[in-house]
Protein backbone atom coordinates (compact mmCIF):
# COMPACT_ATOMS: atom_id res chain seq x y z
CA UNK A 1 0.00 0.00 0.00
CA UNK A 2 1.22 3.50 -0.75
CA UNK A 3 2.93 5.36 2.13
CA UNK A 4 0.33 8.13 1.78
CA UNK A 5 -2.09 5.76 3.47
CA UNK A 6 0.33 4.31 6.01
CA UNK A 7 2.25 7.42 7.03
CA UNK A 8 -0.27 10.21 6.84
CA UNK A 9 0.03 10.61 10.59
CA UNK A 10 3.65 9.45 10.92
CA UNK A 11 5.89 12.21 12.26
CA UNK A 12 9.21 10.59 11.21
CA UNK A 13 10.45 11.95 8.64
CA UNK A 14 17.77 12.97 -16.95
CA UNK A 15 20.47 15.24 -15.20
CA UNK A 16 20.13 18.82 -16.50
CA UNK A 17 23.07 21.18 -16.82
CA UNK A 18 22.55 24.92 -16.87
CA UNK A 19 25.03 27.48 -18.11
CA UNK A 20 24.67 31.12 -17.23
CA UNK A 21 22.64 32.95 -19.85
CA UNK A 22 22.08 29.83 -21.94
CA UNK A 23 19.19 27.47 -22.43
CA UNK A 24 19.32 24.27 -20.37
CA UNK A 25 20.76 21.30 -22.20
CA UNK A 26 20.29 17.57 -21.74
CA UNK A 27 23.26 15.48 -20.69
CA UNK A 28 24.31 13.03 -23.42
CA UNK A 29 23.01 9.73 -21.94
CA UNK A 30 23.95 8.13 -25.31
CA UNK A 31 21.30 10.36 -26.81
CA UNK A 32 23.28 10.72 -30.02
CA UNK A 33 23.20 6.97 -30.58
CA UNK A 34 19.45 6.95 -30.09
CA UNK A 35 18.93 9.80 -32.56
CA UNK A 36 21.04 8.04 -35.18
CA UNK A 37 19.29 4.69 -34.61
CA UNK A 38 15.85 6.29 -34.93
CA UNK A 39 16.85 8.23 -38.04
CA UNK A 40 18.27 5.13 -39.73
CA UNK A 41 15.23 3.05 -38.75
CA UNK A 42 13.15 5.54 -40.76
CA UNK A 43 15.63 5.38 -43.68
CA UNK A 44 16.34 9.09 -43.42
CA UNK A 45 19.52 10.82 -44.50
CA UNK A 46 20.87 13.63 -42.32
CA UNK A 47 19.54 16.09 -44.88
CA UNK A 48 16.05 14.57 -44.80
CA UNK A 49 16.03 14.49 -41.00
CA UNK A 50 17.16 18.11 -41.02
CA UNK A 51 14.19 19.08 -43.20
CA UNK A 52 11.75 17.21 -40.96
CA UNK A 53 13.04 18.54 -37.66
CA UNK A 54 14.07 22.04 -38.67
CA UNK A 55 17.52 21.46 -37.18
CA UNK A 56 20.60 22.21 -39.25
CA UNK A 57 22.31 19.19 -40.79
CA UNK A 58 25.53 20.11 -38.98
CA UNK A 59 23.66 20.31 -35.66
CA UNK A 60 22.14 16.86 -36.17
CA UNK A 61 25.54 15.44 -37.02
CA UNK A 62 27.08 16.92 -33.88
CA UNK A 63 24.23 15.56 -31.73
CA UNK A 64 24.60 12.07 -33.22
CA UNK A 65 28.35 12.14 -32.64
CA UNK A 66 27.91 13.29 -29.02
CA UNK A 67 29.79 16.51 -29.81
CA UNK A 68 27.02 18.68 -28.36
CA UNK A 69 24.12 18.14 -25.99
CA UNK A 70 20.75 19.19 -27.47
CA UNK A 71 18.76 21.94 -25.85
CA UNK A 72 15.15 21.28 -24.80
CA UNK A 73 14.06 23.14 -27.92
CA UNK A 74 16.14 20.80 -30.08
CA UNK A 75 14.71 17.76 -28.29
CA UNK A 76 11.17 18.98 -28.99
CA UNK A 77 12.06 19.44 -32.67
CA UNK A 78 13.50 15.92 -32.81
CA UNK A 79 10.43 14.41 -31.17
CA UNK A 80 7.95 16.16 -33.46
CA UNK A 81 10.03 15.93 -36.61
CA UNK A 82 10.75 12.22 -36.27
CA UNK A 83 7.22 11.43 -35.08
CA UNK A 84 8.27 9.74 -31.84
CA UNK A 85 7.47 9.99 -28.13
CA UNK A 86 10.01 11.45 -25.72
CA UNK A 87 10.62 8.09 -23.91
CA UNK A 88 11.67 6.56 -27.24
CA UNK A 89 14.40 9.15 -27.51
CA UNK A 90 15.94 8.46 -24.12
CA UNK A 91 15.55 4.72 -23.74
CA UNK A 92 15.13 1.61 -25.81
CA UNK A 93 14.18 -1.93 -24.77
CA UNK A 94 17.22 -4.12 -24.12
CA UNK A 95 17.72 -6.88 -26.67
CA UNK A 96 16.68 -9.58 -24.21
CA UNK A 97 13.67 -7.75 -22.75
CA UNK A 98 10.24 -9.24 -23.25
CA UNK A 99 6.80 -7.83 -22.65
CA UNK A 100 5.37 -9.20 -19.41
CA UNK A 101 1.79 -8.84 -20.60
CA UNK A 102 0.74 -7.35 -17.25
CA UNK A 103 -2.44 -5.30 -17.43
CA UNK A 104 -5.12 -4.12 -15.04
CA UNK A 105 -8.23 -2.11 -15.84
CA UNK A 106 -10.11 -0.18 -13.17
CA UNK A 107 -13.60 0.92 -14.13
CA UNK A 108 -14.86 4.32 -12.99
CA UNK A 109 -15.77 4.20 -9.32
CA UNK A 110 -14.49 0.64 -8.87
CA UNK A 111 -11.13 1.38 -7.26
CA UNK A 112 -10.41 0.25 -3.71
CA UNK A 113 -11.57 2.96 -1.26
CA UNK A 114 -9.27 4.12 1.50
CA UNK A 115 -10.69 7.10 3.43
CA UNK A 116 -8.62 9.16 5.88
CA UNK A 117 -9.54 12.26 7.91
CA UNK A 118 -8.07 14.55 5.23
CA UNK A 119 -8.29 12.56 1.99
CA UNK A 120 -10.63 10.06 0.41
CA UNK A 121 -8.35 7.84 -1.65
CA UNK A 122 -9.42 5.44 -4.38
CA UNK A 123 -6.61 2.98 -5.12
CA UNK A 124 -6.33 2.03 -8.81
CA UNK A 125 -4.88 -1.06 -10.54
CA UNK A 126 -5.13 -3.03 -7.30
CA UNK A 127 -5.07 -6.45 -8.98
CA UNK A 128 -1.38 -6.06 -9.88
CA UNK A 129 1.24 -6.80 -7.24
CA UNK A 130 4.80 -5.43 -7.08
CA UNK A 131 3.92 -2.42 -9.23
CA UNK A 132 6.69 0.03 -10.08
CA UNK A 133 4.27 2.88 -9.47
CA UNK A 134 1.11 3.29 -7.42
CA UNK A 135 -1.76 5.29 -8.99
CA UNK A 136 -4.68 6.58 -6.94
CA UNK A 137 -7.48 9.09 -7.24
CA UNK A 138 -8.07 11.36 -4.28
CA UNK A 139 -10.85 13.62 -3.11
CA UNK A 140 -9.30 16.29 -0.88
CA UNK A 141 -11.42 16.92 2.22
CA UNK A 142 -8.84 19.02 4.08
CA UNK A 143 -9.64 22.74 4.16
CA UNK A 144 -6.70 23.93 6.25
CA UNK A 145 -3.11 22.85 6.76
CA UNK A 146 -4.03 22.61 10.44
CA UNK A 147 -6.17 19.59 9.51
CA UNK A 148 -2.91 17.62 9.28
CA UNK A 149 -1.09 16.55 12.48
CA UNK A 150 2.21 16.80 10.59
CA UNK A 151 3.70 16.76 7.09
CA UNK A 152 2.98 13.75 4.90
CA UNK A 153 6.31 12.28 3.81
CA UNK A 154 7.54 8.96 2.43
CA UNK A 155 10.15 7.49 0.09
CA UNK A 156 10.06 7.94 -3.67
CA UNK A 157 8.86 10.55 -6.13
CA UNK A 158 5.33 11.58 -6.93
CA UNK A 159 3.27 13.06 -9.73
CA UNK A 160 0.15 15.06 -8.90
CA UNK A 161 -2.54 16.12 -11.38
CA UNK A 162 -5.62 18.20 -10.52
CA UNK A 163 -8.69 16.63 -12.13
CA UNK A 164 -11.26 19.10 -10.81
CA UNK A 165 -11.52 21.97 -8.36
CA UNK A 166 -8.49 23.75 -6.95
CA UNK A 167 -5.97 23.03 -4.20
CA UNK A 168 -3.31 24.74 -2.16
CA UNK A 169 -0.21 22.59 -2.56
CA UNK A 170 1.98 22.77 0.55
CA UNK A 171 5.60 21.58 0.40
CA UNK A 172 8.17 21.71 3.16
CA UNK A 173 10.80 23.83 1.40
CA UNK A 174 8.61 26.07 -0.78
CA UNK A 175 5.84 28.58 -0.36
CA UNK A 176 2.33 27.10 -0.87
CA UNK A 177 1.11 27.31 -4.47
CA UNK A 178 -2.47 27.14 -5.71
CA UNK A 179 -3.11 24.60 -8.46
CA UNK A 180 -6.20 24.49 -10.65
CA UNK A 181 -7.88 21.96 -12.91
CA UNK A 182 -5.32 20.65 -15.40
CA UNK A 183 -2.30 21.80 -13.36
CA UNK A 184 0.26 19.24 -12.22
CA UNK A 185 3.35 18.87 -10.05
CA UNK A 186 6.22 16.41 -9.76
CA UNK A 187 8.23 16.31 -6.57
CA UNK A 188 10.41 14.41 -4.13
CA UNK A 189 8.01 12.98 -1.58
CA UNK A 190 10.57 12.58 1.19
CA UNK A 191 9.91 16.33 1.37
CA UNK A 192 6.89 17.04 3.53
CA UNK A 193 3.76 17.79 1.51
CA UNK A 194 0.01 18.22 1.88
CA UNK A 195 -3.04 19.27 -0.13
CA UNK A 196 -5.90 21.53 0.91
CA UNK A 197 -9.02 22.16 -1.18
CA UNK A 198 -9.66 25.80 -2.02
CA UNK A 199 -12.63 25.30 -4.37
CA UNK A 200 -16.25 25.29 -3.23
CA UNK A 201 -16.44 21.55 -3.86
CA UNK A 202 -13.72 19.17 -2.68
CA UNK A 203 -10.93 19.02 -5.28
CA UNK A 204 -10.23 15.72 -7.00
CA UNK A 205 -6.66 14.77 -7.91
CA UNK A 206 -4.74 11.93 -9.49
CA UNK A 207 -1.58 10.84 -7.72
CA UNK A 208 1.07 8.49 -9.09
CA UNK A 209 3.79 7.42 -6.66
CA UNK A 210 6.99 5.65 -7.69
In short:
The protein has 210 residues and is an alpha+beta fold.
Q: What are the SSEs and their pairings?
A:
Elements: H1 3-6, E1 16-17, E2 25-26, H2 31-41, H3 46-53, H4 57-64, H5 72-82, H6 86-90, E3 112-115, E4 119-123, E5 134-140, E6 157-164, E7 166-171, E8 174-180, E9 184-188, E10 193-197, E11 203-209
Antiparallel strand pairs: 1-2, 3-4, 4-5, 5-11, 6-9, 6-11, 7-8, 7-10
Helix pairs in contact: 3-5
Structure description:
The strands form three sheets. Strands 3-4-5-11-6-9 form a six-stranded antiparallel β-sheet, with no helix packed on it. Strands 8-7-10 form a three-stranded antiparallel β-sheet, with no helix packed on it. It is elongated. The model is unreliable at 6-28 (pLDDT under 50). Helix content is 22%, strand content 28%. It has helices spanning 3-6, 31-41, 46-53, 57-64, 72-82, 86-90, and strands at residues 16-17, 25-26, 112-115, 119-123, 134-140, 157-164, 166-171, 174-180, 184-188, 193-197, 203-209. It has 210 residues and is α+β, with helices and mostly antiparallel strands. The protein has six helices and eleven strands. β1 (16-17) and β2 form a beta hairpin. The chain starts with a helix and ends with a strand.
Entry keywords:
210 residues; alpha+beta; six-stranded antiparallel beta sheet; three-stranded antiparallel beta sheet; elongated
**Amount of helix:** 10-25%
Measured distance between first and last alpha carbons: 12 Å
Average pLDDT, rounded to a whole number, is 84
Strand residue content:
25-35%
Helix/strand class: alpha+beta
Order of neighbouring strands in the sheet with most strands: 3-4-5-11-6-9
- Helical stretch tally: 6
Number of strands: 11
The biggest beta sheet reads: 6 strands, antiparallel
Helix-strand pattern, N to C?
Answer: HEEHHHHHEEEEEEEEE
- The value of Rg in angstroms is 21 Å
Amino acid sequence: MDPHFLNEHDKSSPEISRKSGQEATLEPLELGQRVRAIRLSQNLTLEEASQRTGLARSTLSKIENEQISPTFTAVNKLVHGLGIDIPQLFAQPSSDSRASGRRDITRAGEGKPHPTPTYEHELLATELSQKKMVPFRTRVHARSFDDFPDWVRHDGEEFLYVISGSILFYTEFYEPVELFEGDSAYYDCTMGHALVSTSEEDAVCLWVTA
